[in-house]
Amino acid sequence: MSTDPTTKSLHAFRSLYGREPEILVRAPGRVNLIGDHVDYAGGMVMPIAIELQTVIALARQDGRSTTGSRFHSVDLERTETIDLGTPVPALPRDSKGSFVNYVIGPIEQIRSKGHVIPAMDMTIASSIPMGGGLSSSAALEVGVILAMRTLLGAPSNPLEIALEAQQAEHDHAGTPCGIMDMYVSAAARSGHASLIDCRTNELRHVKMPDEEDAIVLITDTTVRHTLNDGAYSRRREACEKALESMGGSYLSEATVDAIEVSALSDEVARRARHVVEETERVRRFARALERKDLEEAGALMFESHESLASLYEVSCPELDLLVNVAEGWRGKGVHGSRMTGGGFGGCTVTLCRPDAVDGITHAFEKAFEEAFARKPVFHVSRAAAGASILEPEGSASPKV
Ligand code: ADP
Ligand code: MG
Q: Hey, whose CA ends up nearest to atom 5 of ligand 1?
């Protein structure tokens, strides 16, 4: 069977529902090059959309007086039937069908804007690993919103889509995330990273290095985080506490000097210092990319990892080992490397020369196998475009 999510989603739609979808959309996952655990503190982040993506096929249940909308995940091999006649609350998170929270949440956002929600059929297929830190959840939410808004003839801009998807994740998935994942999935430009100021939601497209100089290697530890297990919320609370105690509008705008003389506990002060310094690193990273200074950009990635590991304490032995091996390849093909995303597992992101990828992946694999008796999973990705509408053949169309 094809591994292409467009083909999988379309085939599933035809075979389950016996007709063609009205709407087919794609939404990419993302990897953050630098700037983690700062979005919710008003910092700067710089992700790219990746080539791994989620494809959603959707049609109204025309002519049927059904109360059951059907949602099928090809990846989970599950179909859930939900009555959308009245607003649907979040399902218990650990229930088997709870993936539909990531579909109902976006639909409820659209309902809350005054739209009437029709009964519908949907299939979902993705090449983004779930829970791997590459934002399969944001891709799904953004994809559902774009698909629904297109179906209802209520087009929107990428920022509005991202805000709706973020609110959906808060309300229906129970994760108080920032806007980064959804925004880059909705708004990215091919060949560019997205520099996002999370205070103003201003997004600037920054050109990625030429492919012969640097490519993005994602290494998945396959350690699966559960962001909503409390650690994420506790980090967020520490930032809120720091802001409350120090004053100001955003923690990212504090200074290291002010943190040092503050009455913050040692732990909260370390969290705050990460936010302030990481935000400054993102600015410097963007400037380094713009002047094609890959050595500086890479050095900032290593610094970022160190800060996430020791000040913010969201790394894990698998991530640390991979970044350690990458350090050994500095000047031999690796520009920079760091953990990326929420942490406690997931992936590292490595900026490296394409001619060194084979050697680097081999070194990662060898060290990882020796330490953990299993292999990491690799993805090499270009910076992809944000969510778009597809024709059933799979070609992008500028309908919205
Ligand atoms: P991440 O966003 O890092 O991949 P999350 O834990 O935030 O991890 O989101 C993963 C959850 O999103 C899955 O457990 C599932 O409920 C939902 N999800 C994402 N992609 C799909 C998919 N293709 N089919 C069904 N559910 C999905
Ligand atoms: Mg997620």
A: 131
